[in-house]
Amino acid sequence: MKLRIVVGVNWGDEGKGRMVDYFAESTDYVVRYQGGNNAGHTVVNEFGEFKLHLIPSGIFYNDVVNVLGPGTAINLEAATDEIEKMRARGIKINKKNYKISDRAIICFPFHKLQDEYEEERLGAKMFGSTKQGIAPVYGDKYMKYAIQVGSLFYPEYLKGQIKRCLELKNRIFTKVYDKPPVDVDEMIEWTTKYGDFLKPYICDTIELLDKAQKSKKKILLEGQLGTLRDVHYGIYPYTTSSCPLSNFGPIGAGLFVNERPVITGVMKAFSTCVGEGPFVTEIKSELAENIREISHEYGAATGRPRRIGYFDAVASRYGAKVQNVTEIALTKLDSLSGQKKLRICTHYKIGSKTIDYFPITPALIDAEPVYTEMPGWQEDITPIRNYNKLPRSARDYVETFESLVEKPIRYISVGPEREALIIR
């Protein structure tokens, strides 16, 4: 078996979907191992442009099995809607190529409500949540109130668990948030309606992947978001509520292996960030708006404009180290064409200290970037497929990244399309 894990090095939105779509052609299984529909992967191929949330990015190849692992959180309604929309666009989704782990947890409408109510309560101190219910449902998982997807096959047990969970939720809604309670029967009806649609896709994915491993199938694990949104090592508390790290990948996927995987860390040629939290290299000028429009930097799940920054080598080196990457895929280099000068953040200055490591959030809030400047390039690089044909200044930019991040850059994306890729 050959195992590859594709992960984000930075704040998420690095272009993981386009890389998974590329690698999936030579893969048998693509497994999402954490998160829910709170983030999306954008894929552009011969079928069009797609923003995937609860469908792994290998779905465009008929022979690839796409799996949502035990570490994921499934909004049943969102998954149903996404399947139907994909089918309407001619993409085949059936019980052979799409699987949902019976150990994944269900994200209910009341989780979304709790997410919204908490952001409302926090006001100016909000975390910048996508308001898809992710923090509440993972909170429930660790408080042992979450409900596994496989419970859909046990109706009486399921009803009892929904009632048990709502006994607590409704106290919180009415006493803490001053909101109306959620009706138990409505939640049971919602679960039955969308659960019945999804039942054909639910299975024991541990057994599925164990057989795949024994048959020496090629498996790709697809992470959501990036290092700096990890609940353990990211810009806590401005993080997601799951673990997008490569070391968690086999656990969240339900794949128990001994072999050393290829870990492809994806990062952009500049920095972007959706949501709140410290963002040291943020550009607060017209340049940010220009880059945002050129590169279409809007959240795939929320549509929110992404914050734009110069490339942060400090954060990227940390992200690559924590993800334990073996190679880097650099995306959106083409979006920087036309810039006369480019900046790379090599250090942070905090008070009188200059550091080259990534500190915890309270220190990041006061950090100022220390930049090195490099010349840009004017040429359109989107048709280029040979690294040596890139402008010298573009190659210098890439090689400076490689030196600072301390990992080899193997792939360079010069456009969103599957084929718009330079392989070094």
Primary descriptors:
424 residues, alpha/beta, Adenylosuccinate Synthetase, Chain A, domain 1, Adenylosuccinate Synthetase, subunit A, domain 2, Adenylosuccinate Synthetase, Chain A, domain 3, 3 domains, four-stranded mixed beta sheet, 20 strands, globular
Can you describe what's shown?
By secondary structure, this protein is an alpha/beta fold. The protein has 3 domains: 3-104 and 201-264, Adenylosuccinate Synthetase, Chain A, domain 1, CATH 3.40.440; 108-198, Adenylosuccinate Synthetase, subunit A, domain 2 (Orthogonal Bundle); 267-423, Adenylosuccinate Synthetase, subunit A, domain 3 (Adenylosuccinate Synthetase, Chain A, domain 3). Helix content is 32%, strand content 21%. The longest helix has 22 residues, at 155-176. The radius of gyration is 22 Å and the shape is globular.
What does the secondary structure layout of this molecule look like, with pairings?
Elements: E1 3-8, H1 16-23, E2 29-32, E3 41-45, E4 48-52, E5 65-68, E6 73-74, H2 76-88, E7 98-101, E8 105-106, H3 109-122, H4 134-143, H5 155-176, H6 184-198, E9 202-203, H7 205-214, E10 219-226, H8 249-253, E11 262-268, E12 271-273, H9 286-295, E13 307-309, E14 311-312, H10 313-323, E15 327-331, E16 341-350, E17 353-355, H11 361-365, E18 368-375, H12 392-405, E19 409-413, E20 421-423
Parallel strand pairs: 1-10, 1-11, 2-5, 2-10, 5-7, 6-8, 7-9, 11-15, 14-16, 15-19
Antiparallel strand pairs: 3-4, 12-13, 16-17, 16-18, 19-20
Helix pairs in contact: 2-6, 3-4
